[in-house]
Automatic annotation (TrEMBL):
<dbReference type="InterPro" id="IPR044992">
    <property type="entry name" value="ChyE-like"/>
</dbReference>
<dbReference type="InterPro" id="IPR017926">
    <property type="entry name" value="GATASE"/>
</dbReference>
<dbReference type="InterPro" id="IPR029062">
    <property type="entry name" value="Class_I_gatase-like"/>
</dbReference>
<keyword id="KW-0378">Hydrolase</keyword>
<protein>
    <submittedName>
        <fullName>Gamma-glutamyl-L-1-hydroxyisopropylamide hydrolase</fullName>
    </submittedName>
</protein>
<feature type="region of interest" description="Disordered">
    <location>
        <begin position="1"/>
        <end position="31"/>
    </location>
</feature>
<feature type="domain" description="Glutamine amidotransferase">
    <location>
        <begin position="67"/>
        <end position="208"/>
    </location>
</feature>
<dbReference type="GO" id="GO:0016787">
    <property type="term" value="F:hydrolase activity"/>
</dbReference>
<dbReference type="Pfam" id="PF00117">
    <property type="entry name" value="GATase"/>
</dbReference>
Length: 217
């Protein structure tokens, strides 16, 4: 990611529940949204970064703001299972539909990719093979992925931090498969829906080795 001008505004959407945020802080010292905020502030030190928790009943943007005022929205990982009908999953999916409708570009990792797919009118499922934990091995870009900006600079195959019990098994109309591996067919994708665009990966490019270890614990 290139350096960003100080006028940029980013919104981190952290769909962990309060209980999951507490558990993650006890394990690695920060919630998934706090991890994203840390890395965004390092990559774009002059940008304004806000956070919202769309799974929470009282989630709200800063007063007077709208999604269209942000340059990008970032969706974090989450333990939510989107095939379960709960208030948390419904609120999270509704938020992502609002992001698509706003036209603000979005990026998400792990559950973020799953949220975007469900918001585009499709579904996700439990992993068909087994838990992919620690690292996703030999992620291989497709022909479309090799020319896509999301994977610019990536080698012909690469490993990345990953831990997920659910997966995107196929992509909705208007989406482009960018990468996959032996365990997970959809490791990276572009999804276009309702005038918006989302880029994302099933893996976690934002986390460090300490968080990999915490997840495994």
């Amino acid at each position: 990611m290139n350096s960003t001008q100080s006028s940029s505004r980013f919104l981190v959407a952290e769909s962990e529940t309060p209980e999951a945020r507490k558990k993650r802080r006890e394990s690695v010292g920060r919630s998934s949204g706090e991890t994203y905020l840390d890395i965004l502030r390092r990559l774009a030190p002059g940008a304004t970064c806000d956070r919202i928790q769309p799974a929470d009943a009282d989630a709200a943007l800063p007063p007077g703001d709208s999604l269209a005022e942000y340059d990008a929205v970032f969706l974090t990982g989450s333990p939510l299972h989107l095939y379960e009908e709960t208030p948390e999953t419904r609120r999270t999916v509704a938020f992502m539909r609002s992001v698509f409708a706003s036209g603000t570009p979005a990026f998400g990792s792990c559950a973020g990719l799953q949220v975007a797919k469900v918001a585009a009118g499709d579904s996700v499922r439990p992993n068909a093979r087994r838990l992919e934990a620690g690292f996703a091995r030999r992620i291989t870009p497709t022909a479309d992925g090799r020319s896509h900006p999301l994977l610019a600079g990536r080698p012909a195959a690469f490993d990345a931090p990953a831990i997920h019990t659910d997966e995107v098994d196929a992509l909705p109309p208007g989406a482009t498969l960018l990468a996959g591996n032996r365990l997970t067919a959809v490791q990276a994708a572009e999804i276009r829906f309702d005038g918006g665009v989302f880029w994302g990966g099933q893996y976690h490019p934002e986390i460090g080795l300490d968080e990999v270890a915490g997840a495994l614990r």
